[in-house]
Amino acid sequence: MEHIVIIGNGISGVTAARHIRKLSNKKITIISDETDYFFSRTAIMYVYMGHMTFEHTQPYENWFWKKNNIDLKKGRVTAIEAPSKTLHLSDGNTFNYDKLIIATGSKPNKFGWPGQDLNGVMGLYHKQDLDNLEKYAPNNKVCKRAVIVGGGLIGIELAEMLHSRHIPVTFLVRESSFWNGVLPKGESNMVNREIKAHHIDLRLGVNLKEIKSDENGNATSIVIAETGEEIQCNLVGLTAGVSPNISFLKGSKIETGRGVIVNRFLETNFKDIYAIGDCAEQQIAIDERKPIEAVWYTGRMMGETVAQTICGNKMAYKPSHWFNSAKFFNIEYQTYGWVWAQPKNNEARFYWEHPNGKICIHINFDKDTRQFIGINTLGIRMRHNFFEKVLNEKKSVDYVIEHLADANFDPEFYKLHEKEIVAAFNKENQTNIQLKKKSWKRILSI
Amino acid sequence: MKTIQHTGLGIFLTGLTVFIALIFLGEYKVSPELFNTVVTNKGIKSELFINDIKNNVLEKTFTSPFKFSRAVTSAIKSANASHKQNSEWDKVIWDKPHSFSYAIAKEAGIGIVKEHKWLFWWLTFGLGIIGALLFIIPQLITLGAPGIKNDGIYHKPATNRGWIGWCVFTFLVAFYVLLYFRPDYIVNWTYVVDPISKSLNGNLASQWFLYGFIYCVVMLVMAVRMYIKYRHNNYQLLRTTSVLFFQVVFAFLIPEILVRFEKPWYDFKNAFPLDYDFFFSWNLNELIASGGLGLFILVWGVVLSLVIVPIMTYFFGKRWYCSWVCGCGGLAETLGDPYRQLSDKSLKAWQLERWLVHGVLVFALVMTGFTLYTYFSGTAAVLGIQTQTIQDIYGFLIGSIFAGVIGTGFYPIFGNRVWCRFGCPLAAYIGIVQRFKSRFRITTNGGQCISCGNCSTYCEQGIDVRAYAQKGENIIRASCVGCGICSAVCPRGVLKLENAPEKGRINPTEILLGNNVDLIELLKKK
Ligand SMILES: Cc1cc2nc3c(=O)[nH]c(=O)nc-3n(C[C@H](O)[C@H](O)[C@H](O)COP(=O)(O)OP(=O)(O)OC[C@H]3O[C@@H](n4cnc5c(N)ncnc54)[C@H](O)[C@@H]3O)c2cc1C
Ligand code: SF4
Ligand code: SF4
């Protein structure tokens, strides 16, 4: 029986394993040393905040793996010998495979800051980081202030986490506004306001210079590069992005760039070795996507795809339209298609913001053809299905505006803002679009 | 703010302490006149009992309800024992001993509580309500801006099965045991609500009036908490208002007022088979005897269960009843909300649930079958089994132990819907309708789920919502009561409770939306 070995029990590796099991009876082993069972990395914040226990983050009960005949092996792979199809483990043992899937995910970036390895300096990625956080920041007596370096999705989650335990937070963001490499101005500003409303000491346009320590190697303060200001703190969170966790591949002759280089079939330069998820880097980026996509959904999709290939139905990784979501404190964010931080030449925008400053919608469309390109919403939930269809069928922005009621996915009885949005759009674009009533026929295509 | 809350907590605990202490206050003394009335009213023929009481109870002062109860119930028991032995069936006292003892104690009580009912109302209910509100209302500020408020739930001993949880558990279980099985211990509690009972139905308060009153008060106070906690979520606000309305008006005020006009006590929203004694002969007889209204109730009860329940469920799902109307649901969604995360999500629990809840439904239906057969044929036994025995077993095991002691008492341990999930025969019935013939579903939003697990954690029905959401599948489950909390707590906007055409309601998916369109098509064709 063919033996499929997967390194990494994150969403990518586990999805691949589940789908291979659905499609075949091949022998499957997942190797990882982070935790015994698959858990949702995306949920670690809720454990620290006390919304859930760690067990709740495990999507499958512990009997699941045995029942589905998926072997779990606890261990760390230190090297891969591709020609002999052998893995070397940190305990000195070796392990053979017929086909190998590398799904080792990411690790937090550290940019060589002085003091970056001190006690109390940490990223937020692995289960061990969560344990560390409990150690260095269990409450605001032990941790009198925390400094977070890097304004991305993980940084803001860490800020919310610490805030939930009443720990004062200083948030250093290199950009002039939160996540404005991705979010356009309106959205970015709204998030800035939300951060400040939670009494986070948000510092925009600043960089970390160094982290200082006491004689025991515990972090005690940080210094800001631009101003030289020193801020006392007991915890420093490094959340300036992530990069593929592939240093163990050095010397394996598996081709790497920032990540493991793969073609559209998620194959590496060695036959029978594949890479998926955060650690995979597309030789040539797909459409407008980045070559490395470090998000949950793409990891899952790659897992679904590679399982087909391994089970004899060779299949290219060809994701459909981009989508993503996040939550900034109390404000939910969703995106479908593309809304760049800066409009491209052919693009026109429509931005509507609720007077309360916590809800907005931002649509990107083609100036000339009026084709819909993408949408961001803050504080409004949208129907994935609707936008998938709109993008597939290359509908116009006017169609989207007209059918906003079909698109809305807010819970029942929520106050809807469609009328205001349509009116604002009409005014701005000299159009006369009438909002259509929600139709199940259209939504369900029946 | 914290000081206000702490003061509130202190006041609340004072009220609670006085409430508990009430049990031990006051004395009981039966006068010959009182006893004569009891003997006449109840038609007691047992001279053994009468003599026993005359020798051991009459004109004696009992300093605690326990002693009094023991004296009366032991008199009943020993009298009954010898009557039964001698087959003197007409002399046997068939009343439940503690209910009998309650009826006498209610009249025989003397002392400070009975003399100052309103004062003690304020010292118990008054302080409790004021204290609780002082604790709850500042949450408007302390919890911060509107949004999901689950910080620290698993750090707090009140909500993570810690010591406070166990204390609440003990109190609730004790309360239900007293209420159902030892009403004669809690006579003092009923004095406190006598004035309110009088003004509503014209009578002194029974233990059931007391229970109904506490139920409403608790729901009202805890609804305030819900309003604050979910103030960003209109679904929750409306739903809470609705259950509150149905409890206070339909389950409490209307029935009590009916009694005032000498009509049968009836809760118009309580559908059979949750209302398991609807077809019991005493109920049917009472309804038939009370004229037009009685007949209307009879027809209404049948129509409600057989027509309205399935039709409403077809259009709106089980939630229309369980989360918008039902009293048990109402308590679970208000008093029980802090405990919803404690429900068991394992597959084993789901298996147990299906056996138990459908077992109770079958039990209820069989019992009703027996009851109706007995009613119309006049034979007391069917297949050699006494109908009365089955009714007693059901009333004890399901009606009291399961619905009350376990159903509510275990909130802080097993979560707030233990009864609704494992025991309620009506829920089982509606669930079958919802599963197979309904427009209701929880739509999963394409591929947006990040498998975080908030939805499953906060599902009071122990449904592993994530198991569906992370596959892109809609959630169609018999047990879903449509509380909407999974949708509320989802940080990615994945879940939406909807009523929509049945077509496409069940959507098993192999892979999720957002992946290769060709792949999705390929797998769909297979
Ligand atoms: C706090 C946080 C919040 C996030 N929130 C979101 C979100 O809301 N939405 C979203 O789309 N994405 C989110 N992400 C990103 C998302 O979690 C990742 O994209 C995803 O987990 C990547 O999955 P993966 O399977 O590729 O890798 P991983 O989940 O990183 O799994 C890789 C596993 O391999 C193990 N491993 C690595 N090297 C070895 C080795 N040599 N030997 C053995 N085992 C090894 C690792 O220990 C790890 O267990 C978040 C990430 C974090 C950290
Ligand atoms: S699935 Fe959602 S709506 Fe249904 S009972 Fe569970 S939490 Fe409530
Ligand atoms: S809460 Fe939402 S994102 Fe989290 S597992 Fe449930 S459906 Fe998925």
Automatic annotation (TrEMBL), chain A:
One of its GO terms (molecular function) is oxidoreductase activity. Gene3D superfamilies: FAD/NAD(P)-binding domain. Its cofactor is FAD. It comes from the Bacteria. InterPro entries: FAD-bd_OxRdtase (IPR050260), FAD/NAD-bd_sf (IPR036188), FAD/NAD-binding_dom (IPR023753). Pfam families: Pyr_redox_2 (PF07992). Residues 3-283 form the FAD/NAD(P)-binding domain. SUPFAM superfamilies: FAD/NAD(P)-binding domain. Keywords: FAD, Flavoprotein. Belongs to the FAD-dependent oxidoreductase family. This is NAD(P)/FAD-dependent oxidoreductase. It comes from Snuella sedimenti.
Automatic annotation (TrEMBL), chain B:
GO terms for cellular component: plasma membrane. The keyword Heme does not apply. The chain crosses the membrane at residues 7-26, 119-141, 162-181, 208-228, 240-259, 287-309, 355-373, 393-414. InterPro entries: 4Fe4S_Fe-S-bd (IPR017896), 4Fe4S_Fe_S_CS (IPR017900), Electron_Trans/Redox (IPR051684). SUPFAM superfamilies: 4Fe-4S ferredoxins (SSF54862). It comes from the Bacteria. Residues 440-468, 471-500 form the 4Fe-4S ferredoxin-type domain. Keywords: 4Fe-4S, Electron transport, Iron, Iron-sulfur, Membrane, Metal-binding, Transmembrane, Transmembrane helix, Transport. It holds the Pfam family Fer4_10. GO terms for molecular function: 4 iron, 4 sulfur cluster binding; metal ion binding. This is 4Fe-4S binding protein. The lineage of its organism: Bacteria, Pseudomonadati, Bacteroidota, Flavobacteriia, Flavobacteriales.
